[in-house]
Design brief:
With 371 residues, the chain is α/β, with parallel strands linked by helices. Helix content is 25%, strand content 23%.
Length: 371
């Protein structure tokens, strides 16, 4: 799901093109592409005689489609085959003022915004990607947002577990760090699984704890999901039209009554969104899988000035994880964690490093590559 622009990052391009400042200067898209390449290689080694191919479906928005396509072409699709990368565009919905009137973006064009990550289902259906999945005999899919630098793209353990359990859909979650962390929680409401946003939970409920001291509502949603292709088809044909619409109050540029385009400095209107997790309630079998935050989740949302969920924290999380990979493989690192980067083409998730690093002593900066 890569429809977002890097506005909050101060970046005038699709967020997937953002470079968080690694030694390699790799963008989010490149890191994820190389993880796919490595996973294909591992699959082919595991099953000799079979060619492991992962199809990458990338949902863009109206504003990110062209620059994303151009970026991939200019970079030769990061070593992947073009025919296995499919981009499609999510829909958009009108923007309103607080009186319910539709805003104008230009004198003869209404203001629209992407319809949220829940626009995935309609976009897959209307773009023909569900039919493409049938043609390719794809049975299981992993869906995630582009802005998690630690994402295990097409995670074979997660997908395999969900497939063996015959799940319709599933969500990876992390334990909330504190009651007021700004993440939704996966929980059961009136007998149905759903995600309740942090803004919708009372303080008293958020602070509830079990006997062992853990938060009662601890399953933090990180936009990291599994779907069976069969379930996606069921959503597209039956349940998509029943998805809830959510209100997001935003600063929305508009044309005023005098025909002048205004860029507001405070919230002035409403964008309507659908959420990807609102399909959980339609599943017959839903799973949650709790994962370690420091291994699988580091979001990139803000400029560095925010001090959290930014490029600096993403780099730090990559460095810490890659230090663990080296140490677990028998290598030693002197000094503090500074710059430690392991190319995804060398290791997908820490595997295969022992022969390279065991017994070695490293000092930062460290950059392990496949060549």
């Amino acid at each position: 799901m890569a429809g977002g622009q890097g506005t909050r990052l101060g970046f005038a391009h699709p967020k997937g093109m953002y470079d968080i400042g690694l030694q390699s200067s790799k963008s989010l898209f490149r890191v994820q592409a190389e993880r796919i390449r490595k996973l294909q290689e591992l699959a082919t080694k595991q099953f000799p005689g079979k060619n492991g191919i992962i199809t990458w479906y990338i949902m863009t928005s109206e504003h990110t489609m062209l620059p994303t396509r151009t970026y991939f072409k200019e970079n030769n699709f990061f070593g992947l085959q073009e025919e296995n990368i499919h981009m499609f565009e999510q829909g958009s919905l009108p923007c309103f003022d607080f009186n319910g009137k539709i805003l104008l973006d230009q004198k003869h064009r209404i203001a629209k915004a992407p319809d949220g990550n829940g626009g995935l289902y309609r976009a897959l259906r209307d773009s023909g990607k569900l039919e493409d999945m049938k043609f390719r005999n794809i049975k299981y899919l992993h869906a995630h947002s582009v802005d998690n630098i630690l994402i295990k793209v097409a995670d074979p353990i997660f997908i395999g577990y969900c497939a063996l359990q015959k799940a319709d859909c599933a969500a990876k979650v992390v334990e909330k760090s504190h009651p007021n962390e700004a993440v939704g929680v996966v929980c059961m409401v009136d007998g149905k699984y759903q995600v309740v946003e942090y803004s919708e939970i009372t303080q008293k409920t958020a602070e509830m704890r079990n006997i062992d001291g853990r938060l009662t509502f601890s399953a933090g949603n990180i936009c990291n999901h599994y779907f069976s292709a069969e379930f996606l088809n069921k959503i597209g044909s039956t349940y998509e039209k029943a998805l809830k619409l959510h209100v997001a109050k935003k600063k929305i540029p508009f044309v005023d009554n005098a025909g002048k385009r205004i860029t507001p400095d405070k919230v002035n209107g409403i964008k309507i969104e659908k959420f990807v997790f609102d399909v959980f309630e339609f599943s017959d079998k839903f799973l949650t899988v709790e994962v370690a935050r420091d291994v699988e989740f580091s979001a990139l949302k803000n400029a560095d000035s925010a001090g959290k969920d930014c490029a600096s924290t993403a780099r730090k999380d990559i460095y810490n994880l890659h230090r663990k990979y080296i140490e677990n493989a028998g290598g030693k690192i002197e000094g503090h964690v500074e710059e430690i980067e392991i190319s995804p083409l060398l290791s997908y998730a820490g595997e295969g490093l022992e022969d390279i690093v065991k017994g070695n002593i490293y000092s930062c900066p460290i950059h392990l590559t496949s060549s």
